[in-house]
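assembly run, all chains below
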Amino acid sequence: MKIARVLVAALAFVLAAGCAKEKQEAGSAGPVGSDAPAHGDAIVEGSIGDVSGFLTAVTSDSASHTAAGYVFSGLVRYDKNLKLEGELAESWEVSPDGKRITFRLRKGVTWHDGAPFTSEDVLFTYRRMIDPNTPTAYAEDFKQVKRAETPDPSTFVVEYGKPFAPALASWGMHVLPKHLLAVYPDISRSPLNKKPVGTGPFRFVEWKTGEKTVFEANPDYFEGRPYLSRVVTRVIPDPATMFLELKSGGIDMMGVTPLQYTRQTETEEFRKLFHKYRYLSFGYTYLGFRLSHPLFSDQRVRQAIAHAIHKKEIIDGVLFGLGQEATGPYKPGTWVHNPDVKRYPYDPQRAKALLGEAGWKDADGDGVLEKEGRKFSFTVLTNAGNESRAKTAAIIQQNLDGVGVKMEIRTLEWAAFINEFVDKRKFDAVILGWSIPQDPDQYDIWSSKKTGPKELNFVGFQNAEVDRLLEEGRRTFDLEKRKKAYSRIQEILAEEQPYVFLYYPDALPVVHKRIHGIEPAPAGISYNFIKWYVPKDQQRYTTFQQ
Amino acid sequence: MLRYIARRLVLTVPLLIGISLISFLVIHAAPGGPVEMATDLNPKVTAEARERLRAYYGLDQPIHVQYVRWLGRMATLDFGQSFSRDGKQVSEKIGERIPVTLAINVLSMLLIFLVAIPIGVYSAVRKDSWFDRISTVVVFTGFAVPTFWLALLLMILFGVKLGWLPISGLVSLEYDSLGLAGKIWDRTSHLLLPVFVSAFGGLAGFSRYMRSNMLEVIRQDYIATARAKGLPERKVVFRHAMRNALLPFITILGLSVPGLLGGSVIFESIFAIPGLGQLFYQSVMSRDYPLIMGALVIGAFLTLIGNLLADVGYALADPRIRTE
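ok done. output:
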């Protein structure tokens, strides 16, 4: 009995001490003046997948590209408002005819091993990108280059056969160190793919396969030393485990699901420790029709389906409200997005009327429309394992049932879905998503020249005006002219509805509160990563101090 | 006996070739290849780039040429280069993951034996007692509970609520700055949950084997004889009965050999353990043919060897089945 009492007392003491400590922390998080930026501490991120290599020319997964972004830099990059700005290039100039780009490079930049960075490195990178020995999938943009030269160590000039606007963004490609890579004919087999040396804000420390990657602040970074001393990315393949790790302090940052965002993080405890962020992600989900299919070749039918689908219900049901109704293939809030396009509010009556105009009537009264003896029924395909797409399909099925259209849902394993059905055009309709690249050129998705096998206009969209505008948009560097061309394309797509654009989901990152300096912008939160810091008295990982 | 072993070993070779041929055909028949898996639906990738990548991997050759090339390399025990972008050899990729998988499997197997054998023996000796019934319920619960669910519950309890054990991974971030004792505890604490969870599911099988073997043996005449000549019950059970009941375990051990290097994807993903299970799963998802083939060949080889070891071991231990 006595022992038990002592134990209880001891426990109470420990709890009290714990509370006191927390209070102290909470106090220091307030505006007391102790929040000044300081060097030190580490940020631990969770990642579903492991890095497959650090040279982005030869990798294609997002984990690898994120990791490489800490170590390497390109000539240009997108700023927080998604406009191109110089990174390794101080400035650039496009010749009046649009065929020549002259990059003026920053002076005094060094590689992580101390060697100076020069225009020779850029030229080397370009040559390796078009070298048949390099197993890269991204050679195309660089093959447009007619001539590349280095008049002096801080100038790099490229010349194109015709003006090619996406070319500018393609120079965001990570520049490779010539002095370390020149001896390897195949860069993917060089040691640098495993132990990178770059010019970026962080230096490589270690990569434990399947476990973690570690980077440390580069004190000589040309924009100043990052505040955080280390960046650790832990590989945690299971999202449920990752969330538990977040709650228990094992990681500081992860992207959560809408369910976690709305239902599992609304506790006092969670709010005390974490900041939640929310902004539109770079992607959209759509219902795409095979336009040569007899059911969907009539524009009125596609418009009717757009009216029949309750997008708000999908966003509420699938994303718990964390998203926005899509109107076209560009992200709202970016310079190229045109908000004044035709919209399709949920209106089953209008949908029925449009279908009626197109000749679809329910003559036999079984609830399904028919025309010339054929019932309006089709199958939508989507990939297995993507829960939000499956749920979206189920809601659309319900919506369409209300206007007399019968839709079956079939989910398929990804590789079979793409290779056997999409590539071979063996589908009625699909639910898929596109990510939205920062450059607005979507030639590959909408041009009538891109409908061949394995090409990406798999719905078979053909419109002469869109073809002309796509060409126009990629042949000028003038943002106003480009904006005009892409605005018109958005109007046509909204009118013709080759896809029913469904929704833009939100990105939902969660970051530990001790990390300060995060300022959400159109580009997201990570654009100013080197400015993130932890005030001195809140630092947690102090063994990493340099 | 030696002739028998030699003959079995020689027979393994055509068997392995047959297995590898079927595996090779099946994985190439699956939709999508390594190039497609990495580049599908990527607007930046042209048809020409795709062709170039296919040629880079040697996938532009007819399938029989690819197989013969692979077989030729295998003859010199060269598993080839993985298609993954880190440019590593298949043997290196498998090698770096063997220690952790082997450690967890061996530890959990030891735990299974340590717990399952006593449970089996005791529930056979005290058949239909309370202990027998409760242990039956417990081990079958372990068998029936999905690994990922149990793992998550334990993580929430010990990792989040109590904060006693780490949730996932192999070591803490501060591992390098710990002292020796700290390092040992750090590693142990990371292994506790995974080993427990993986052993818990295996208890049912082993303890039931042990129980039924014991029941079988206890009915034998020589047990009655041992009792009749007045041996203490402890001696009867452990000396005469249990040793004989353990015989079938040789077979089970032999069959477990391939399992030592096999890992479960679900289990490893939940605990974020970089083991062979995850590696093989990812290799299948990315159609990394050399790595898949390497994994399959190793698995097939271990299975054949395990069977052989079981047969030989059994023959050595039990004179009754020694033929000629």
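The CA atoms of residues 120 and 209 of chain B lie 7 Å apart.

Chain B has 16 helices and no strands.

not gonna interpret more than that til we talk
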